[in-house]
Fold this sequence. Notes:
Elements: E1 7-8, H1 12-27, E2 35-36, E3 52-54, E4 80-90, H2 96-105, E5 118-122, E6 128-133, H3 148-156, E7 159-169, H4 175-180, E8 189-191, E9 194-197, E10 200-203, H5 213-223, E11 229-233, E12 248-253, E13 258-263, E14 266-271, H6 282-291, E15 297-300, H7 309-314, E16 318-322, H8 326-338, E17 345-348, H9 352-366, E18 370-372, H10 379-386, E19 398-400, E20 407-410, E21 444-451, H11 457-472, E22 493-501, E23 504-512, H12 515-518, H13 533-543, E24 546-548, E25 558-563, E26 570-573, E27 581-586, E28 603-604, E29 608-609, E30 617-619, H14 621-636, H15 646-658, H16 664-675, H17 682-691, H18 696-702, H19 712-729
Parallel strand pairs: 1-7, 10-11, 15-16, 15-20, 16-17, 20-21, 24-26, 27-30
Antiparallel strand pairs: 2-9, 3-8, 4-6, 4-7, 5-6, 9-10, 11-12, 13-14, 18-19, 21-23, 22-23, 25-26, 25-27, 28-29
Bound molecules: S-adenosylmethionine.
Amino acid sequence: xxCSIYRSKCGHVPDKKINRSAAMRVERRSTxxxxxxxxxxxxxxxxxxxxxxxxxxxLPEMFRPPINRAMRTLDRSFFQRIVxxxxxxxxxxxxxxxxxxxxxxxxxxxxxxxxxAVRHMEGNDGSSLKALLLREDLKAxxxxxxxxxxxxxxxxxxxxxxxxDLTLDYDYWTYAEIIHSILPEDMxxxxxxxTQVGHVLHLNLRANYxxxxxxxxxxxxxxxxxxxxxxxxxxxxxxHSQFRTFPFELLAGKNDLxxxxxxxDCEFRFDYSRVYWNSRLETEHRRLVEKFRxxxxxxDVMAGVGPFAVPAGRKKIFVWANDLNPHGYExxxxxxxxxxxxxFVTPFNEDGRDFVRASGTRLLEAGPVTVTIPHKVRRDxxxxxxxGEEEQLPPPPKYTRPxxxxxxxxxxxxxxxxxLDAFPGVYSGKDELFAPNTEQKLPMVHVYCFSGxxxxxxxxxxxxxxxxxxxxxxxxxxxxRVGGSGDQEVELAIHNVRLVSPKKQMFCASFRxxxxxAFRKGGEGLPALNCQIETAEFNLKRNNLIQLTPPSQPxxxxxxxSLQYPPHPLSLTSQPRHPEITMSVQLxxxxxxxxxxxxxxxxxxxxxKLGADQHTHTLSLSEARLVIHKVLENKRRGGNKYEEPENxxxxxxxxxxxARFKDEENIKAVERLLNSHTELEMFERSQLGSLCCDNAxxxxxxxxxxxxKISDGxxxxxxxxxxxxxxxxx
Length: 730
Ligand SMILES: C[S@@+](CC[C@H](N)C(=O)[O-])C[C@H]1O[C@@H](n2cnc3c(N)ncnc32)[C@H](O)[C@@H]1O
């Protein structure tokens, strides 16, 4: 038996070369190209509740990087470790495969991630030999640690054992392993699951990681060769721009966010600081595009830079792709040219509502367009065909753009449902062009939204249906889903897109536009005007006029804000001039004392007699305040001067004092809560939202018509919910 003891000094260089590339493979093994999942075997982001996972301790202790919890500036040279191992030197190079097989079977070969067990070593006579690194607990000088296989191989004189110093350095360890040796011990999670857009890695760090943000960024950049810039989101998407961009800070690398991004074989070039892009939506973009058939017509209402539109164009689907962001529009124009889809994709730069409203008629008026796709034929084949030596080709495929929209896509999940109010009347007066008079079906609408990620998903779906119904003024229920017991013409489908955070799920609700909505005349019966802020803005943009009259009698509790659906002016008057839509604002009483009921024809007593306003969509004070502020904001946008009339100032002063809710999200939440009480009239719901009574008795005294409509228990529950919402952010 021969056993030579030898401590190699030649392990370092091959380690670096082999391990670096191995490490890169591991770092980038996420299957979703769009997502860089740093550090090892995590499931894709979409399936996770949270993107912070406990560190995977893959490496045995002696292979882990040295610890330095005080490090605040990255010192790469600190990360070095020599691991004393043993190796089996193989005397005949041709034996290597066989011996490796035997030693692998006997579990004697070193099995540590990203370390190649095959090494070069010097023999006792100075010759160069191949060697196999052995498991860490096997000692060359201690036969009691050898397996029978090793003993036999040594005895046969096929191998001998020697010591080997394995050098591990910064290049060897993964981001997760290095950062874990720097972060405080009690932080047993590391930030991961970031997204990459072109050369930019985009982090969304929690505050407790802020002291380490530059370290994290630098290590991530080192470990991912395609990353040249690392940024951290400092506020939520959409918080500072309606274009869904976000404020960020540069953590590492060059300050250049002009990226080149590929998705579905299309190339997009854009400044990531100026447009919306989310690499995590690639699967969803693909899913929806797969629903569209070549030759169909799609209107993408909030198209961004075109991740639905451009790939759809490649599939010979006609798309009118709109986005309000002027830079997004420019990028889309570039993407259309770059990806050669100009025959199919036409960019627009309009407000989504204007775009939807105009789309039906605009497309009809534009008429059909035919695109012929010439055959791609090699020159010699073409010559042969012309010479009659080969058969003529079939006629080139032709696609004719339809005059009707087949699909609307609305991916602005925070608000898209609100934009659905643009659909009523989109094909007003065009009934005869659609089924059953013709074969033509009404368009499908694919609207994205967020919902609360309830334990019971059905609750989320019910909530979504309710929100859709409010906006289109037509009841859609979960029973209307395909195969359900409801209206099968609606073809409802709700798809879970992804979990955005533990309490927020993104959905795509698809439904066929009901004829009652599409053919509605002149916006008649537009839904819930307490959500019509944007419509007011839309009209204001066209008409540049606000008329406002506060309540005509000092004790009157009703002022009304009337909105005439296009193209008439928005006016806030006590006597609307035959408005098609009227929003009434119920001003609250100065005190909670019982007041004399209104006299005459109109009365809001135990029965509601509101005359012409009986079925009017009503606004609470908070909603009215929000509407007016939005309208003024719009008028003053771009530095325009606008002197508000005195009566408007007075009304705003009043609303500032008496509006119980000031925050927009909160106002919407109140609206949803109140609208879930379909047993109550609109007027009563708005009253409840304005008054925010403490108890059921008080509410019934101030709004007598509630008496027989709602039990004290239910009313109290509703009031408690309202109080909770008031306490929440107000
Ligand atoms: C969440 S992004 C979606 C972009 C793209 N569809 C995608 O899937 O990546 C929403 C887009 O809506 C655009 N947007 C915001 N408000 C809009 C409006 N009023 N009308 C049209 N587009 C709007 C933003 O500029 C942004 O590009």
